[in-house]
Design a protein that fits this description.
Elements (H helix, E strand, L loop, with lengths): L4 H22 L3 E3 L4 E3 L5 H15 L1 H27 L10 H7 L3 H28 L5 H25 L17 H21 L1 H12 L6
Antiparallel strand pairs: 1-2
Length: 222
């Protein structure tokens, strides 16, 4: 069955927003991937850059920006609802109390870090992809996909780490002098995370070509 271009675009939008929300909800867990330790959210973030690159290649810069704005709005809604849910008192029959608060009661600073890093990095990715598309005259999709994503992932990781953790102490007070989260320590965290994200970015290049072909092979294009 040949789906319409509009339906396929909406499917990608659903994948984009779903992956974004899921990455933020599960991202508190740091897992052992055998060769490195990282947040499990790292499994989903490459999808975000992949989807916007596919959309921009087929629909253009404006539509890709719309995806970013929709994702940003979804994060704001999730933030507001999560804060309200945590603040509401538990009913006596509630099965989970302390566990719920520990999982969802993340600090506002981390939420702000995630939302800010997402918005700026994604807008840069949209701009960079368009910049390289003009420079390459629409050729070398693999190059545009990777150049825009690699730099954007660095921006995303750096902004999140600094906004979320710089100067934080064990008692959550901001104290750059006594905190272990110094500039040097943060870059010791940022560089490995970024390198892992680069590997994911390189690995998703075939999926970028497949996504573009799938989107173009729609009713409106036949």
């Amino acid at each position: 069955m040949n789906l319409s271009l509009n339906l396929k675009t909406n499917i990608l939008l659903g994948l984009f927003v779903g992956s974004l929300i899921a990455a933020n909800l599960i991202g508190l867990k740091v897992a052992n991937f055998y060769l490195f330790d990282a947040s499990v959210g790292i499994l989903l973030f490459p999808i975000l850059f992949l989807v916007t690159d596919i959309i921009e290649e087929v629909h253009g810069k404006k539509k890709a920006k719309e995806f970013v704005i929709v994702g940003f709005a979804a994060l704001i809604i999730v933030l507001i609802v999560t804060v309200i849910a945590v603040l509401l008192p538990f009913a006596d029959r509630s099965l989970v109390k302390e566990e719920y608060t520990n999982i969802f009661g993340t600090t506002i600073r981390i939420f702000i870090a995630s939302i800010t890093a997402f918005l700026i990095a994604q807008l840069h990715d949209v701009w960079a992809f368009n910049f390289w598309k003009e420079k390459t005259k629409g050729k070398y999709l693999w190059l545009r996909n990777n150049l825009s994503t690699i730099v954007s992932q660095l921006i995303d990781t750096t902004l999140f780490m600094f906004i979320a953790f710089y100067g934080v102490t064990l008692n959550s007070w901001f104290d750059p002098v006594n905190s272990k989260f110094t500039i040097i320590y943060l870059f010791e965290l940022i560089i490995p995370y970024w390198l892992v994200k680069i590997l994911f970015a390189l690995g998703d290049t075939p999926f970028c070509y497949l996504g573009v072909r799938w989107l173009r092979n729609s009713k409106e294009h036949t």
